[in-house]
Amino acid sequence: MDFLEWATSPWGQNVPIHIAWFLIWVSAIAGLLFLIVHAIYVMYFAKARVFASDASPAVAAKIPKHVPRHSLVARLFHWVMAASMFTLLFTAFLPKVGVQFPWVTYHWIAGAVLTVSIIFHIIHASFWLDFWSIWPDRIDLDDAWKRVRRFAGMSAPPPRKFAKYPLENKLFHGVIILCGLSVILTGIFMMSRVRTVFFPRNPYLFSDMTWGLMYVLHGLAGVGLIALVMMHVYMGLRPEKLPITKSMIFGWMDRDFYLEEHDPERWVVEAPSASSISSRVESRGAD
Amino acid sequence: MAVIRDVMPAFELFQPSSVADAQKLLEQHGPDAWVLAGGLDSFDWLKDRIRKPKAVVDLSGIDELRGVRTTADGIEIGAMTTLSEVVNHPIIKQKYDLLAQAAEVVASPQIRNQGTIGGNVSQDTRCWYYRGGWPCYRAGGNICYADTPEGRNREHAILHADRCVAVNPSDSAPALIVLDAKFVLRTRKGERVVDAEDYFIGPDIDITRLHILQPGDLLTAIRIPSTWAGAQFYFEKIRDRNVWDFPLMNVASAMTTSGETIERVRIAVNGAAARPLRLKAVEDAVRGKPRSATTGEMAGKLAVQGAVPLQFNAYKIPLMRNLVKRAISGVEEATWTS
Predict the structure, then answer these.
(1) Which residues, in sequence order, are CB contacts of A158 under 8 Å at separation 6+?
(2) Is A7 on the interface with B (CB under 8 A)?
(3) Which one of A138, B5, B328, B330 is separated from A235 by 20 to 30 angstroms, measured CA to CA?
């Protein structure tokens, strides 16, 4: 079973041309298996979560009823990115599984939208938001180790509550960065092989081997995104995660959920002022 | 041209005597099966060892696929009917002469004696990079060797190119589109009848095929309704060698007029894109107008809107413009007889 498809170039060179398309099903099935296993685990085996300590009554009293989490700009970015990602996945893989339609133009337009939105996000997150809030820190790693030990039945003190993002979110974001940047960077070069408004066609920009590897990387990252997006949507729809999903729509989460999941010392939320939630979020750099 | 490398690769030959048997064999072997009609396109692929099917299903022994039959509303031509039979059939000559004209300029008399109408509309493109076995888009790869500054693309597409710039080489296809023909397919789900223009697909839909036939499917017949019987027809084919060649481009039109005014019209060209193109915008523009050189001029200009020439095929734009102009205005400057 070959994971890549190979061809002989006109110069007799054996070059990869793209991934084997059965990997689409491998990724979809892997995503589905994750959902099933996770759902069964949560339903039948997961123990109640225990955290180190609750916020003091004094701190809790200062938390507003609606805790701002995502600014309007950040939410708009997320949904634009989601729309372009779904368009990219459907236009890329539906034709490969038998649903025929003229997909190329939709695909590169969605790719261009994704690229622009990601560039915007990088700049926005770097200069206007709390850039480091999405990256794992030492406390995340310490707590992850404690959670692993407790999961295995070994003794360990309970972990702290989460900062703005749980470690799982941060790791998922990291994997999405890897896959997303892979498809974007390779996709930008691949656009020189089709007729777009951006570049004159130049299929000989690279050697056949380099092009082949680029198509393979694009394909691998693309099929990887099938499973990742399935996991993300599943998590967004799980009942216990719905407050987080709602915050991506309305911009805020309930005070109770915040106090239950998050550590006010690690994710500092100030008391509300007269200004709107959106403006508070912007000024404090929530993303 | 493709290099002949060796004798044909070994395959299992099946010679069914009924459509049902043929379809069963095609379903059984799926993508590993190759449908053999007249063999004129097939043997190129097989002898060049570019295609190596495990099973070849030869349709030549199926009588029900042969012959021209009259129906309540026109005629039905079996897919295995030879082009010579189409050319010489009295009803086709009398009522659907457009198809006879188109079939008569396919290749040579010997090839028309062997080639079938089903094979002519289902044959693969002549792009030599593709037929030479190069790993291009159409062959499942990730490049078009013809659409490059150095590529030999004199015969390739000026319209609707999408990564691949190959063109459909059929002469009968535009005539059948103009005659509003229906293609009868046998598929796994039963019989399916599609309009002629829907039988052909471009690279935007599926870059590896020129038509909608899937593995296991079979084109069994072509039905031509009486809609355009006896209309004023025009067919012209431009090729490098008038004795025997694929079209650089061809045009087919059918028209009814009232006095000098065009009442109904259908027009299609082939050799401009990966599928024969019905020029609906042209039809709409000339309907109700006088059949004149002025109308033809306007139609020709309209037909080539959006054309994008490659390095060596810019000539196809004035060629198409003039073919459409002549088809509409009725200037018959080129006729061939066998």
Answers:
(1) A50, A51, A52, A146, A150
(2) yes
(3) A138
